[in-house]
Write a structure and sequence with these properties.
Helix content: 40-55%
Strand content: 5-15%
CATH topology: Rossmann fold
CATH superfamily: P-loop containing nucleotide triphosphate hydrolases
Number of helices: 16
Order of helices and strands: EHHHEEHHHHEHHHHHHHHH
Strand order of the largest sheet: 2-1-3-4
Distance between the termini: 44 Å
Number of domains: 1
Shape: globular
Oligomer: single chain
Length: 300
């Protein structure tokens, strides 16, 4: 193996009770691999579906999306099992992660697709996602102590104010506001790299055909003209919701309502929840976390 082909190792390790980016050190990349990196509720599954449609060029996928595009970092599935499944794949691989690019091995043979979303919108979606999780079952699967009965969630606005007010290091809490900003800003700083592709949830919502065609171009995928209508239809939010049982991630039972995983697919809920004063406080806080151009892209 040449120096250029030698497997790179992760620069920064992100480790929580649920995931560990060091698991990426054990994967042997192949030329053409695709890594899909996004914070939760920012369009990860949407981009996985887009990549699946471009790779297989058929709206009927050959297996559940979580099998075709496994989440490598997640403790729920033993690492050896994930690596074995990926080694057995003969199609072009597209692998899911919630780790920022600075926590992944960066290989020039791999295309890294980073999806971002307005943090307040992602947070609102995260709030509803938490309510749709069977946390006790998830803890059992990951070998964690039983968390006991869950306390009722606070009202959305109260929860969102608390979330934006947290002072947390991204390395400790990637699902914090600081973690969302770090993930997007790190990708933005690498946007000129030939193997880094940035996508935004708002663009997927506003122009899905244009974004899918752009993604096909960046991935070097040629789609016959006659196939585009079916592929574009399969990537719409209503169609993904209708096939939620094949698309949601993780072992059965973790998600209480599969269709609820695809809750609305819209933008603006976060900004509509907070007052003008609270929004001003939010923007003042994030202005200290990332360059203005990165924030302008993230917030548009």
């Amino acid at each position: 193996m040449t120096a250029e082909q030698r497997q790179p190792r992760i620069p920064v390790r992100y480790k929580t009770a649920h995931q560990d980016s060091a698991r990426w050190n054990e994967l042997e990349f192949r030329p053409g691999d695709i890594v899909i990196s996004a914070r939760p509720r920012s369009g990860t599954t949407w981009m996985q579906m887009i990549c699946a449609l471009l790779v297989f060029q058929d709206p009927e996928l050959p297996a559940p999306l979580s099998e075709l595009s496994p989440w490598l970092d997640w403790h729920t599935t033993p690492l050896a099992e994930v690596l074995s499944a990926l080694a057995a794949q003969r199609h072009r691989r597209f692998i899911k992660t919630h780790t920022p690019l600075d926590g992944l091995p960066l290989d020039p043979r791999v295309t890294y697709v980073v999806v971002a979303r307005h943090p307040l919108d992602a947070a609102v979606s995260l709030y509803h996602h938490y309510a749709n999780l069977d946390v006790r079952r998830l803890s059992r699967l990951q070998g964690l102590p039983d968390p006991g009965p869950e306390a009722p969630a606070p009202p959305l606005r109260e929860w969102l104010r608390s979330w934006t007010g947290q002072d947390a290091r991204p390395e400790d809490r990637l699902d914090s506001l600081a973690g969302y900003i770090r993930h997007a800003a790190d990708a933005w700083a690498r946007r000129d790299a030939s193997n880094v592709v940035l996508a935004h949830y708002a663009d997927l919502s506003a122009d899905l055909p244009g974004e899918m065609r752009r993604m096909a171009g960046r991935l070097g995928v040629t789609v016959p003209a006659g196939r585009w209508p079916a592929l574009l239809s399969a990537a719409t939010f209503p169609q993904m919701r209708a096939h939620a049982s094949q698309l949601v991630q993780g072992p059965p039972g973790i998600i209480i309502d599969d269709a609820g995983f695809f809750r609305s697919g819209t933008s603006g809920a976060g900004r509509g929840t907070l007052s003008e004063t609270e929004l001003a406080t939010y923007h003042a806080k994030v202005a200290l976390m990332a360059p203005a151009d990165a924030l302008a892209w993230l917030h548009r």
